[in-house]
Amino acid sequence: QLVESGGGLVQAGGSLRLSCAASGSLFSIMTIGWYRQAPGKEREFVARINSGFFSYYADSVKGRFTISRDNAKNTVHLQMNTLKPEDTAVYYCNAVNVGYDFWGQGTQVTVSS
Q1: pLDDT tens track of the chain, all 113 residues?
Q2: Of these four, 52, 63, 80, 106, which has the most CB atoms within 10 Å of its CB?
Q3: Are 84 and 65 in contact (CB under 8 A)?
Q4: Residue 50 to residue 83: CA distance in whole angstroms
Q5: Which residues does 107 contact at the CB level (< 8 Å), separation at least 6?
């Protein structure tokens, strides 16, 4: 089970930190990703971090967002800085490995101009 938190309303240029808390014993071997879906648009990839702590970002957030993981707490964070109105979306956490594909319920991020 994945539970996202940390969403909210922020002005453009501001910051938010999203968290994804996972239950279960397989967390450390899972690749954890963040995706987002804006109204009327398809869900898109934002960032991911694998079991070796290697991270990868969408071009649209590179340099502004940072993903990190704490295996001791079964948690992944997405630090979002210099937010833009186009970052407004529901943000979803995803955990994958061979035979596993879990999604959270999402957390709303709204960036006002």
Answers
A1: 899 999 999 999 999 999 999 988 889 999 999 999 999 999 999 999 999 999 999 999 999 999 999 999 999 999 999 999 999 999 999 999 988 999 999 999 999 99
A2: 80
A3: no
A4: 24
A5: 4, 5, 6, 7, 18, 90, 91
